[in-house]
DNA sequence: GTTTCGTTCAACCATACGGGTGAATAACCT
DNA sequence: AGGTTATTCACCCGTATGGTTGAACGAAAC
């Protein structure tokens, strides 16, 4: 009874995991530099097998970082950098939470200082 | 000939892998919200074991996302959001590469148009 | 001096991941 | 028809990862 029905990894995790691999990042860079390319052409630029690259591209596709335009057997892979915005947004949220806390701390300190000034 | 002498994982990969786990992101959020905390306190907020949280924190520490101030047995863990800037910078680089390519494309098209105008 | 506390270390387990090889698919080109 | 081309699919393999439990450490408190 394994009961692990977790086929719902949040998109942010999928995205970050996709970018966490050096080869995949290199693929993204290549696509950004040279525009849409076929799977085989991409694979030709790396020392890994075509098969491995195909799998990497599927991961990137699943994360929304690339799209595929299939002109029959030629699959044109295109980068979609907008997707990275999701990560940016998470960072921004985290930083805002952090800033809020610091502001609250500042307020608390200011209040203490006022108190001090008051009855000193 | 696997030639695996040294993993030498680049810092960006370490960083992205560290943020790619939901529990670790939750830990970062918690620290941003409530400030530095002890390992045990952090673990108390999750349904995983203290041990697992300890390991997560080590991963975050190794990535430079948190620092540890050990006051003997109490390890105060503090978030360091500046480290995320490294990821931001990689994104920016990628986007700039992308933009450059589009500019080059634009130029090429403009040149073609000029050519057309010229000898028409 | 024994207990308590906060944390890590050491095994161990199951699953995920990255990579490799070989077969399958499906249209185009002789 | 037979071969080439572009890509995925189906396995197999080694290692990494996240989790668990239990022991160890070392000072502080009793």
TrEMBL record, chains A, B:
InterPro entries: ArsR-like_HTH (IPR011991), HTH_ArsR_DNA-bd_dom (IPR001845), WH-like_DNA-bd_sf (IPR036388), WH_DNA-bd_sf (IPR036390). SMART domains: HTH_ARSR. One of its GO terms (molecular function) is DNA-binding transcription factor activity. Residues 4-109 form the HTH arsR-type domain. This is Transcriptional regulator, ArsR family protein. It holds the Pfam family HTH_20. It comes from Oceanicola granulosus (strain ATCC BAA-861 / DSM 15982 / KCTC 12143 / HTCC2516). Signal peptide: none annotated.
């Amino acid at each position: 009874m394994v009961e692990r029905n977790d086929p719902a990894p949040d998109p942010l995790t999928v995205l970050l995991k996709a970018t966490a691999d050096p080869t995949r990042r290199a693929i993204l860079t290549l696509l950004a530099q040279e525009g849409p390319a076929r799977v085989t052409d991409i694979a030709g630029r790396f020392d890994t097998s075509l098969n491995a690259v195909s799998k990497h591209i599927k991961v990137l596709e699943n994360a929304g970082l690339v799209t595929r335009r299939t002109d029959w057997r030629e699959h044109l892979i295109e980068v979609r950098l907008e997707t990275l915005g999701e990560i940016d947004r998470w960072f921004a949220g985290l930083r805002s939470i952090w800033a809020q806390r610091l502001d609250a701390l500042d307020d608390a300190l200011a209040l203490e200082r006022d108190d001090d000034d008051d009855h000193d």
